[in-house]
Amino acid sequence: MAQVKMNLKSNRRWAVALLAASSLALTACSSSREGTTAAGDTQVAPATVTITPAQGTEKARPDRGVVVKAAGGTLETVSVQAGGKPVEGAFNAQKTEWRSRWTLRPSTSYTVNATAKNSIGTTSQAGSTFKTLKPEATIGASLDWILQGNQGKTYGVGMPIILDFDRAVHNKAAVEKALEVKAEKPVEGAWRWVGDQKVIYRTKTYWPAHQKVTVNVRLAGVRAAKNVYGTKNLSRTFQIGAARISKINMKKHKMVVTVDGKKARTVPVSGGNASTMEYTTTSGVHLTMEKDNPVRMISPGRKKGDPGYYDEMIGWAVRISNSGEYLHQTSGQEYCLGKANCSHGCVRQGSADAIWFYKNAQPGDVVDIKGTNRKLQWDNGWSFWQLPFETWKKGSALA
């Protein structure tokens, strides 16, 4: 009889415990689903919003941008402004974080406002007003002179984008991330650093013809070196015109010019006589760089009275390298055109052909020369197409 009483007492304890556990389980499910207890109290804490830089910061580093994070919920809205202008940014996939896309401007006040919601829709708000630091030193950038002041000018399909800085860049990766090239007909391309103050962009293949290209240099706020920041952005838009490609065979003394894939002209030419290395035309992919009529040409490494010395004004000249190579009007020896190489390294043409080429040439047109034993170096002028693209890309700080 005593044993039975003990079992009944034990069973009662078990039943009470089971009932209590069931009650707790139901309350937990209700809280998760409904968000309230039986008394109607909220069980889910509001989301916490953290803004960096924090409220009142006076010397925020502009290269670190703005970061907004939500804990215990997701971000709903983020607004960042400076002088009434919005700052670009993006959420992560989970909408728990927002980051500004570009660096901030130095010596500038910013206002941030953000909202977030927890799992039951409770809204949280946060804000921050801060100021970025004043840099100890600044850095500026300029596009190669051929693009300066030529907004909307038309260029050839081989045209590179050359950016020069007014002081050394040590944080090359940070600067390169701030460079943006946008084309109506996009094609793969890459930047390559040449020293500490120059970076060059070229495409993998020639630009598709007849389109607009925009270069954005978002340098403001970029930390280019210790305590050195950019303060201004730079933007240029230019046109890629017709695909003008000239192929010159020095052994056949002939140039064939195509425009948008169609043959436009066949021209008898005369190249360098190859009596010395400097009098040998270089073989490789050149680009037209500039033109003038006339151009004063002086023999390299020779003074007046030396054998081979010359000092002449030459008409209708289009430069294709930094080593003194031009396509120009012949200054005599017309009998060589189409038959022999008689020049001092330039490519000579008859008057009518030279005038036609000069008037139609765009900066960045392709001049592909073959048939000589002197190879064009990739850094001789705009001869960047001499490097395979995979090699070119290795010069990027982001490779």
TrEMBL record:
Regions that span the bilayer: none
A GO molecular-function annotation: peptidoglycan L,D-transpeptidase activity
Pfam families: Big_10, YkuD
Active site per the UniProt annotation: H328, C346
CDD domains associated with the record: LDT_IgD_like_2 (cd13432), YkuD_like (cd16913)
Alphabetical UniProt keywords: Acyltransferase, Cell shape, Cell wall biogenesis/degradation, Lipoprotein, Peptidoglycan synthesis, Signal, Transferase
Domain L,D-TPase catalytic positions: 244-370
PROSITE patterns: LD_TPASE, PROKAR_LIPOPROTEIN
Pathway membership: Cell wall biogenesis; peptidoglycan biosynthesis
GO cellular component, as recorded: extracellular region
Xref: InterPro entries: Big_10, LD-transpeptidase, LD_TPept_cat_dom, Transpep_catalytic_dom
GO BP term, pick one: cell wall organization
Signal peptide: 1-28
Protein name: Lipoprotein-anchoring transpeptidase ErfK/SrfK
